[in-house]
Structure formats: C-alpha cells, structure tokens
Design goal:
The complex is a heterodimer. In chain A, strand 8 and strand 9 form a beta hairpin. By secondary structure, chain A is α+β, with helices and mostly antiparallel strands. By secondary structure, chain B is α/β, with parallel strands linked by helices. Helices cover 32% and strands 34% of the residues of chain B. In chain B, strand 2, helix 1 and strand 3 form a beta-alpha-beta unit. The chains are: A alpha+beta, B alpha/beta.
Chain lengths: 742, 107
C-alpha cells in the first residue's frame, strides 16, 4: 500500500476512534433522555461520517456495517420509530462491533470468525427494525450492487429527496481557486478538454465573485462554471480532467440521474445563493421545474431546521456531499486525501484544535529542555561578569524561556475528562450485568495532565472503577437492609494539589473487609498471623501481587491481577496510591500524580559539597537549624517548629556522605518539604536558590539508588541529583517504625 | 499589449491590441483603473478587441470586471468589436450575451 493511502488510513482510524467514543457518549446520554433530537443528530452525523470516510479509504467491512447503523438511525431521526432501551442496547453493541472492525482494519487483519458471526447476528437484529426495502445482507459481496439496491429501495419511498432527476447529463460545478492563473493554468483549457469528452449541453460562466475593480487582483482567478455534459465516460475520467486544480478549487460532479438530495446538497455547498443556482440548473436542463421546486422547498426546510437546531448543521453539507455515495469514486485516492483534509479543517473549525503528531511535540519539549539548560548556563556567566545591561537582558530572556517552557509543557496537557467519561459505559454495563443499581458522578473533568500520564493512568483507573462497581457496591437488598439509597454512587474526581494531581475513585459500598484481607494475607504469607497492623497497613495489602478476596471470579474483576498492576503503573509515573475504607460506608482510593514528567522548578541545595535539587513545589519553607541541634552527630531528630514537632533527617548521612568533616562554623539549614500531607525537614549544608531542572533519567543501573529520582544538568555542566522526597519520607517513616517496634 | 483611448461625444472608446493575458494583467489593470477615476466624465465605454491577437481567461476576466465596474458607476458599456482570440473565448464561455460585439459586422 502506498504511503499516502497509508496515512489517510491512519487519520481515518484516529478519527473513527474519536467518533466511536462520541457515539458511545451520545448513546449513554440518549438513555437518560431518549427524545433528545440533538443527541440523535449527533449520533447520526458520527455514524454517517464513519461510513463515508471508511468507504473512501476502502475499509468495506466498516462501511457496510456503519451503513446499516445509519439506516436504523435515519428512521429513528425521522421519528418513524421511538427510541427504546432495546434500540440503545442494540446500537451500543453495534458500536462495539464497529470499534472491533476498526481495530481489525488498524492492524490490517481480517475480523475473526467470532466477530463475523456477531456482525451477522447484529445485522439480523438491525434488519428487524428496517422496512424490507432498506434491508441488506451483510454478506453482499459487491458494494456497487448494494448501493444500487439501496437506491432502488429508497426510490420506492415517498420522500422526494430520494427521487432521481430525469436528466441524462452530468452536472459539473466548478469554482476555480484563486491561484489558478498563477499556477499557469487556464480554465478555458479545461473546458476545451471537456468538449472532447462529450457534448456540453449547457454552460454558465459565473463571474459575480469578481470583487470591485479597485480591489480585484488581476492575477487571481474568480471564475466559476456550471456545466451540463452529456458523456459516456465514467466519473473518474471526468474527475481526472481537473486533477491539477483539484487542490484549490471546488469541483462537484453529479452523475446523470442523481438524487434530488444530491442537488440540494450541491446548492448548499456552493457559495452562490440557492435561487440563482436553481435557475442555472433549470436552464441547463439538469432539473425540471417540479424537481427544482421540490429541491428548493426541501433545501429551505433543511436550512431552517439547521438554523433553529444549531449552527453546525449549516457547515455540514460540504462534508456530506463528498461522502455521498457515488459522488467520489472509490479508486480515487487523491480525492480521499482531499476529503481527509476537508474533515480535518471541518473538525478544527468546530473544536479549534489542530492534530499534531506526538513525536513532534516530544521533539519540541526536548528542545525546550535544552534551551532551559543553556539559559541557566547564560545566567551563571552573567552573574560572574557583573555587567548590568547584560544582566537585564539575560533575566529578560530567562523570563521568556520560562514562558516558552510553560507553554510547551501545556501543549502536552490534556483534560482528564475524556478518560473519565469512558467509565460511564463500564459502570452502566456492570450495572446491567449484575442487576445492581449505580451511577457514576464525575467531577474535575477539566483537570489537565500530561498526555503520557493520562494515557498510562487509564488502565489503573479502569481497574479501580470496575472494582468499585463490582465489589464495592452491594446488591439491592443488601443496600436496602443497610438503610442506604438503592442506587449506589461511584464518584471520580480530579483536582490539583501542590504540584500534583489528585485523582480519587470512591464508592458508597460495603467497604473493604479488614479481617478477610488479613486472613488472605496470612494465607499468602505476606504477614504474620498475630501481628497487629494499622488499618492503613492492612488496606495496603490489596496492592500485593496475586491478592484478591473476591469469593467468585466474575467476568470483570476479582482475578487478583488488578491492584498490583494499578500500583505498578502508578509507581512508574512517580505517583502514589492510598486506600481509605470504612466498613459499611465505602472505599476511597486516592491517586497522586506529578503534573508533568519532564521539567520541574527546583530548589538547589548543597550537601557535603555536591548539589542536589528538591522539587520546588514540595518546599514549604527554610529555617536555620537551631543551635541545640547543631553539630549533634545525629542522623535524625526533631525540632520544635512553632509549637509543632517536626522530624528532620540529615541528608549528609542519608546519602552516606560520611567522611566529609562538618566544620565548626557551618551553618546548617532545614528545608521543610511537604508531600501527601506530611511535613519533614531535610538538613542541608547550603541553600543555593531556585533553578529549572530538566529531568534526565539515571537509567536502570541506578534504579535502586534510594532517595534519588533523577538527575539534571546545571548551567555550568555539572550534574545535580534530584531528591526523591516521597521516598525519603517513606524511609524515615519506616525507620521510626522499626525503632518503635524494637 | 497596447492600449489606446479616444473620446468622442462623451463615449470613451478603448482599443486593446496584442496579447491580453495573465502576463500583462497587472499592468493592464493599472491602466484601466484610470478610466474609473472621478475626472473621467464619459457617459459610456466602448471596447474594441479587434486587435487582440491572444487572450486568456485572466484577460477575459479583466474585461468582465471593467464591464461590471462601468455598470456599477451607471455608465454604458459594450464591446464593439472582437478579434478571433476574444471571439473564441467568449464563445467557449458562452458569454455572448454579456460581451456581444454590437458592431461585429464592422470588424
């Protein structure tokens, strides 16, 4: 397969995935409000777009199936059948099947026999809703035949949109792009060439778009043509005539006997007003007076509908025209590329976004990282030179570099809401399957996280939500007996907290069973039977590999592979996870994640002659080490911080920098850091100020180095290690615990 | 490309000759622009294309623009003579109604 086509397929698949998500959301919304026309329209558009673009990139399995869904949706949209739960259920299954077909196409493999059987089954169910004329057989091998059959079926319907125009001529609408002359082309030569392919029965030159004389650019082309052509050549040949101007020009070719619907769409898509175009079509013989009247009536009805419905509808027909069956010949890959361009432009107009490859973004972030390092370098030299002008310029630049860094990092940030909304379906399905009632409440969907983090957090969250729905929420009777509302509540929340993002998954279910967990842990040899453990420690055990207390393994969870994977994934993102539970009241899992993985604002400190960096957002304050504690050769200790006991640890001894003598006049300082609600003091030799640190991984060799999460290169080229505050806090707590136990 | 003008009883006759194509479009437009200045009090324009040896769509488009501007200013406009080049293009574009050469039999 050539490259261009491959790329179009990639784009299609990425878009199809988004559209499928949109379909799922719309179906779930429809379940809550079955008569919402807006939602039904959204659904229809999404399915229609999938059908159209899959046809263009030649993924017939998807096209055929989406076509069936579209048929059902179109009768739903016309109000001919009511939306029932049965239909929503069916459409959800169809969506899943389409998703599977899309994934098959993505991996370029044939759908499995299972999938095919499911497809056939769904086709049967879809057909029961459709009038016999619109029914289709999924195994129909020839697409063209199917389309013809479809058209015949629709012909029988009373809807004038599906009637066919009587003309035997092609109708060609051309609006040449502004650069046509400048690219060395002349519309006249295309017209001359057309006369060789057939007989031009009508031609109208449109020059109304020439601006006022003073404003016109004589080298720009403003010409357009409406042409009726009697020709025996096929569509591709006619399209090929305009191959060289296809990119910038509007070219619409309607085959003879096209549906009125196509003419309506043509009128909608062209810049001129409907009356004028209608007149041209009439004069050229493309449409008869009655056909034109019908078309214009429908067209105005449609645009009125669009006006009251929403603005988006108005922009749609261009898209629809292209994907309209028969309008674009399948073999025309270039046209497909154009279509992709159009949908992309269309999409970005809607959401104001641009699709960028992740690799480009990564390259940018990398470069910004280098920029930050050399910026720091410049700063150091500036300080040495003590030149005021230079200093000012450098600090100005430094500010800009920081802005660039922040903006670049923001580019990678995506809202977590999209990930969250996928769980609606999971909760709904579990609710159906288990007969329990529950709903999912999402808050903080707008919270933004690094794209990579969002991707990696998806699976752990899915496990947690499944667990909550499957194990947390009790059955109806049990809930009634406990005096709780029958409908269980699962909530998913995200918010910012001191340089990290906190995601909580909580349910109001039965809570964790402390004794059961202990029993199981003893059985697995994780703890000793007679050991007293705090609640927190007991709950932590569920993150051990192979741990599951579920009595029965359901389809969804309880296989004991969930929670340890959750913790591993979160660890790999430098995050933490904690469980809280009250028996009978519910469970809450709190996940803490760093905002970004690449650059941090750091606080530079000196320990035994080396530089270290503490993530600035964790630093709360710096105080002098009180005289009483100074030069006491203690690894750990406590100070009185405004009436609170603050544990501290000497980093010299933590990092085993023994041997370097602490001189008598060294003034040690305490940097107080906070993480996950806990405060601890780090005793350091020198405070060296703020800096931006580009995190460089230390590689797997240093994976086991405790208290170090990475390294950064400073402006002068020396390496500073980044202090892993969470790990230090954990170590200190463990030490205190073992001391207490001893 | 050559442009000649002649004023006769309030009618401005414009004679174009040579190549009227994209290559001279900017220059021609600049020249024609003066026709529409306020100082020009001619009530009507006549265009003589009989000397045009070559015309492309950019040239024709400019002629159409002149006609439209003249109409917009409430002045008369007609093409009084076509050469072979302009005639062929007008035929192809089926613009005879818009750019009919009233005095065709003369040229």
């Amino acid at each position: 397969m050539d490259n261009a086509l491959q790329q179009v397929r990639h784009t299609f698949i990425a878009e199809a995935r988004e559209l499928l998500q949109e379909i799922e959301n719309a179906l779930l919304a429809l379940e809550a409000r079955p008569q919402d026309n807006e939602t039904i329209n959204t659904l229809f558009r999404a399915v229609h777009t999938i059908k159209g673009s899959s046809g263009i990139v030649g993924i017939e399995t998807v096209e055929r199936f989406a076509h069936l869904m579209e048929n059902l949706l179109s009768i739903v949209r016309d109000g001919r059948i009511r939306v029932t739960n049965g239909i929503i259920e069916l459409l959800l299954e169809c969506r899943d099947h389409t998703a599977e077909l899309v994934e098959c196409a993505a991996e370029e493999r044939e759908p499995s026999a299972d999938a095919l059987a499911r497809g056939a089954h769904l086709t049967g169910r879809l057909n029961t809703f459709l009038p016999s004329s619109a029914q289709e057989v999924v195994s129909e091998p020839v697409l063209k035949l199917k389309k013809a059959g479809d058209a015949q079926g629709r012909l029988a319907s009373t809807d004038p949109r599906f009637r066919h125009a009587g003309t035997s001529a092609w109708h060609i609408s051309l609006r040449f792009g502004a650069d046509t002359f400048r690219s060395g082309m002349d519309p006249a030569s295309f017209l001359t060439y057309l006369t060789r392919l057939g007989e031009i029965t009508s031609l109208v030159t449109l020059f109304d778009s020439i601006p006022a004389f003073n404003e016109m650019n004589p080298e720009s082309c403003y010409l357009g043509f409406e042409i009726d052509l009697k020709s025996d050549f096929d569509k591709k040949t006619l399209e090929d005539v305009f191959e060289f101007v296809r990119e910038d020009s509007i070219i619409r070719i309607l085959p003879p006997h096209s549906r009125l619907e196509s003419y309506i769409e043509l009128i909608n898509a062209l810049p001129e007003d409907a009356e004028l175009l209608g007149e041209i079509l009439l004069k050229g013989g493309a449409l008869s007076q009655t056909e034109l009247d019908d078309a214009l009536r429908l067209q105005s009805a449609e645009s009125a509908q669009a006006d009251e419905g929403e603005g988006r509808q108005a922009a749609q027909p261009i898209g629809r025209i292209l994907v309209n069956e028969g309008m674009v010949s399948d073999e025309l890959v270039d046209a497909a590329i154009e279509k992709q361009k159009e949908t992309r432009v269309h999409k970005s107009r809607e959401s104001g976004t641009v699709r960028i490859s992740a690799a480009k973004l990564d390259a940018l972030v990398n470069l910004v990282g280098e920029l930050v390092i050399s910026g720091a370098n410049v700063n150091q030299h500036t300080r040495r030179l003590k030149d005021n002008g230079l200093f000012e310029a450098a600090s100005n630049m430094q500010r800009l570099v920081e802005d660039v860094r922040d903006t670049a990092m923001k580019l990678r940030m995506v809202a977590i809401g999209e990930t969250f909304s996928r769980f609606n379906r999971i909760v709904r399905d579990i609710s159906r399957e288990s007969g329990k009632e529950m709903h999912l409440v999402i808050t903080g969907a707008e919270t933004e996280l690094d794209k990579l983090v969002v991707e990696k957090i998806n699976d752990p969250l899915m496990h947690l939500v499944r667990n909550a729905a499957d194990h947390g929420i009790e059955g109806l009777e049990e809930r009634k007996a406990a005096g709780k509302p029958v409908k269980g509540l699962i909530s998913l929340n995200a918010c910012y907290d001191a340089g990290s993002v906190v995601i909580t998954v909580s349910d109001d279910g039965k809570g964790l069973d402390r004794e059961k967990i202990k029993g199981k842990a003893t059985l697995l040899g994780l703890i000793e039977a007679d050991k007293t453990l705090s609640d927190g420690d007991v709950y932590k055990l569920i993150f051990e590999p192979g741990f599951s207390t579920a009595q029965e393994v359901t389809k969804l969870s309880g296989r004991g592979v969930g929670m340890d994977v959750v913790r591993r994934n979160i660890d790999s993102l430098r995050g933490t996870v904690a469980v809280d539970s009250v028996s009978g009241k519910g469970t809450r899992v709190t996940i803490r994640l760093p905002l970004t993985l690449a650059i941090i604002d750091g606080f530079l400190i000196g320990v035994a002659g080396s530089s270290y960096v503490i993530p600035l957002e964790m630093v709360t304050e710096c105080v002098d080490l009180p005289d009483s504690e100074r030069r006491v050769d203690k690894r750990r200790g406590y100070i009185n911080l405004r009436g609170e006991v603050l544990p501290y640890i000497r980093l010299t001894s933590f990092f085993n920098c023994a041997g370097t003598l602490i001189e008598a006049d060294t003034r040690e300082s305490i940097v107080i850091v906070r993480y996950a609600g806990r405060l601890i003091g780090l005793v350091v030799d020198a405070l060296e100020g703020q800096m931006q640190a580009v995190i460089k991984s230390l590689g797997s060799v240093y994976r086991d180095a405790r208290g170090i999460s990475g390294a950064t290169i400073m402006g002068d080229g020396t390496v500073a290690l980044i202090v892993d505050v969470p790990a230090i806090i954990k170590t200190v707590e463990e030490e205190i615990e073992t001391e207490g136990a001893a | 490309m050559e442009v000649a003008t002649e004023i006769n009883n309030g009618v401005l006759t414009l004679r174009l000759a040579g190549e009227v194509t994209i290559y001279g479009a900017s220059e021609l437009k600049a020249r024609l622009g003066t026709l529409f200045s306020e100082r020009n009090e001619s009530a009507s324009f006549e265009l003589d294309l009989s000397g045009v040896t070559e015309m492309d769509s950019a040239g024709l488009q400019l002629v159409l623009a002149v006609k439209r501007e003249a109409m917009a200013l409430g002045k008369g406009f007609k093409v009084v003579a076509h050469g072979n080049a302009s005639e062929a293009l007008v035929q192809l574009y089926r613009l005879s109604e818009d750019l009919s050469a009233a005095g065709k039999d003369n040229g």
